[in-house]
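Protocol step 6 of 9: fold each sequence in the batch and record its structure tokens directly after the sequence line. For illustration, a two-sequence batch is reproduced in full.

Sequence one:
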Amino acid sequence: MTNLNVSLIGVPTDVGAGTRGASMGPEALRVADIHAAIAAFGADVRDCGNLAGPTNPNLPAVGGFRHLQEVAQWNEILHEAVYAELRAGRLPVMMGGDHCLAIGSISAVARHCRSVGKKLRVLWFDAHADLNTATMTPSGNIHGMPVACLCGHGPEVLTRIGGHIPAMLPAEIRQIGIRSVDEGEKRFLCELGVEVFDMRYIDEVGMRAVMEQALAGVDENTHLHVSLDVDFLDPTIAPGVGTTVRGGPTYREAELCMEMIADTEQLASLDIVELNPALDHRNMTAELAVDLVESLFGKSTLMRMHRQTRGKR
């Protein structure tokens, strides 16, 4: 790891989701001892506590969006918190909360990249493409829209967060584990040219080949951001999510993803979202998420050479 000053930021809200409960995610991760898990790798870990924002009004969609103003407020607050930690030279770990919060975290990361002249690479681990818009969404839930908003397609109150529209380019994101995409999203993915490694492709070529492609071009001048939606995982091992989709990656496939990211030594920010303790069994999904975080920070079975030196013996 190139940065061992880590800041945990709790964001206890589910305003962007259709199922309540993700607001309890930050505390479930703390119960699973995420602080000690990261500190074990020699990191200076600071728990910044939970951000405060509007409550969930639990209202129906208006104009294609549920809770638009509340989502915007939470993301503005989160943007400032993440950007402050990045400016201080720390690695922010956003503990959500639902995936609409990626608008705030990734817009802050993109803003930081622009200010320091780094390339941005976002690895989006998810069962869903999250590329809906007001005209395509079947529900109005904004946790299904963050990629669209970050790419400049959405209400200005969300796309302008960070002061740059779009916050990121479609070429800067790689989506991994996708297996539930709405019809409108399929066309939009093609139009934007987002690189998607869906579960069929993973089945065909294997997770190692997928990760090699997703990480291609990552170097010392890359800010690598991981946005981990726990519904990326197969629900048999991660039941504590509001939008389960069968046929996700296995435990070992998920661990391999995180281990290969750790090998790059370029991880610089992290989202953990959609963990819903109300739907979990004895906190097993939170514990699995923390296990994956350990791999992101360097846990491995054996001592391994760095990626750039491997094969030179």
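Sequence two, same batch, same settings:
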Amino acid sequence: MKYETRKKAFILLADGTIFYGKAVGNKEGSAFGEVCFNTGMTGYEEIFTDPSYHGQIMVATSAHIGNYGISHEEIESEGIKISGLVVRNFSYHYSRPAADGSLEEFLDKNNLLAISDVDTRALVIYIRENGAMNAVISTEVDNIQELKKQLADFPKMDGLELASKVSTTEPYFYGNENAKYKISALDLGIKKNILRRLAERDCYVKVFPYNSSFSDLKSFNPDGYFISNGPGDPQPLKGAIEVVKTILNKELPMFGICLGHQMLALANGISTYKMHNGHRGINHPVMNLLTGKGEITSQNHGFAINREEAEANPDIEITHIHLNDNTAAGIRMKNKPAFSVQYHPEASPGPHDASYLFDQFIDNIEKYKTQTV
């Protein structure tokens, strides 16, 4: 597509700030969401299809997006989950032989509005300094005042329950039914690569909707319980918190990732809060306090648990901290086989430094089996 034929577009932030650009492809209109940015240099396809990003307008800090196309093997859920996309340079042509098609085709198929030619460096600096906020991207350049009114009424992420928007509506199975271990997974917005990592460790997984009860999960007669990642504010998920409380009361093996990490904290009376910007990228440094080793991790979250409350809780041990801001990045129960991390050990995209956590989950299951024989 020639640059001259592309429509003018812009991103309007909730505080009235505007950054201008051009529309990607032929799609027109407006898209609302909370604006955030991801610092990963690769992995845009996995980011766009990660259910944890539901309701967010993604700003890519990498200067070129779309240059290696799309591969169906790298999709993390059924379709795109972000609300809109903002980039510096959009690549209409791709060069990876293994790609199944272009990013433009993928966006069109998923009816996603995207804009390019935005000064994303200036935009990211502005968001970083002023905090995450709602925004709208649009090609309606003559309708800015009306969009400002609509943006003012758009729901804020703080207090917003979104797991119901991305969770499965019916239970389903993943892996080999003859596997050694059976896992019940509560789907708050689960990524496919989490299921792949469990299946690689000889697990047969039954995935349950976000509003399932403990009795539902128990009906699979699992060896362990998994609480998934997901979007939105963790505090409204009262049902999931009660499920985790029951798992803890029965002292069953449990592993939580991201939103699942926050569920474990809330189940122990540890509060959560909305961060100024959150952590989103594939190069976040984490310190494992148990081993003294550093890890480079993949992260995507806008909420965090209260570290001071976690440190004061006699039943909780902080196992990992984020080295950029010292937030709690991992916790475990001192006397129960339950633990969680705020980041994504399954990666996709990202490094595999933390994949050992899935092995730790299996080790906990084996120890539990030994103790209960």
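Proceed to step 7 once all outputs are recorded. Observation for sequence two: The chain has a mean pLDDT of 96.
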